[in-house]
């Protein structure tokens, strides 16, 4: 059986920002689509999740985490799996240094100076 990719969480990761996430009381299924979900239902689900992220006060911290960790699944920091994957392929090896802030720098390198309070859908 093929091994599914896992997030590569940096050892120095802090998690206190999660307490303030706008998704804290939302259904997890809004942010993580069912296996093999495609098409309109997947797009609608992602757009709904992104709209929650768009008003989240810890979006920057969440997005930094998701990129530094190569988080493979779900909507994190307002970016979908596919959007993050497009950034991951531009990054150095997972074994290279991943300091706090490196994730946001990678996002800005790939997408420009995005407004982290704006919805990206
Ligand atoms: S940015 Fe989105 S996924 Fe991250 S904590 Fe906020 S609401 Fe949750």
Explain what this protein looks like in three dimensions:
- With 121 residues, the protein is mostly helical.
- The chain has a domain at 57-121.
- It has four helices and no strands.
- Helix 2 (59-68) crosses helix 4.
- The longest helix is centred in the middle third of the chain and has 15 residues, at 39-53.
- The protein is globular and about 35 Å long.
- The protein starts with 38 loop residues before the first helix and ends in a 10-residue tail after the last helix.
- The model has no long low-confidence stretch (mean pLDDT 88).
- Bound molecules: iron/sulfur cluster.
Task: Considering the chains and any ligands shown, give keywords for the structure.
121 residues; mainly alpha; single chain; binds iron/sulfur cluster
Secondary structure blueprint with pairings:
Blueprint: H1 39-53, H2 59-68, H3 81-88, H4 102-111
Helix pairs in contact: 2-4
The protein binds iron/sulfur cluster.
Iron/sulfur cluster (SF4) binds at residues 21-23, 31, 52-53, 56, 58-59, 62, 75-78.
Give the bound compounds: iron/sulfur cluster
- Give the uncertain stretches in residue-range form: none
Number of strands: 0
> Helix content range of the residues, please?
25-40%
Q: Kindly name the structural category.
A: mainly alpha
Radius of gyration: 14 Å
Q: What's the order of the H and E elements?
A: HHHH
Mean pLDDT figure: 88
Query: What summary fits the major beta sheet?
Result: none
Number of helices: 4
What would you call the shape? Answer: globular
Strand portion? under 5%
In whole angstroms, how far apart are the ends?
34 Å
């Amino acid at each position: 059986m093929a091994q599914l990719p896992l997030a590569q969480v940096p050892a120095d990761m802090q998690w206190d920002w999660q307490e303030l996430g706008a998704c804290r009381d939302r259904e997890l299924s809004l942010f993580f689509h069912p296996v093999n979900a495609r098409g309109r239902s997947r797009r609608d689900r992602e757009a709904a999740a992104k709209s929650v992220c768009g008003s989240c006060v810890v979006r920057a911290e969440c997005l930094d985490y998701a990129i530094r960790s190569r988080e493979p699944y779900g909507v994190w920091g307002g970016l979908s799996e596919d959007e993050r994957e497009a950034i991951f392929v531009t990054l150095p090896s997972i074994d290279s240094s991943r300091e706090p802030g490196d994730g946001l720098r990678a996002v800005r390198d790939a997408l420009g100076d995005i407004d982290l309070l704006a919805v990206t859908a």
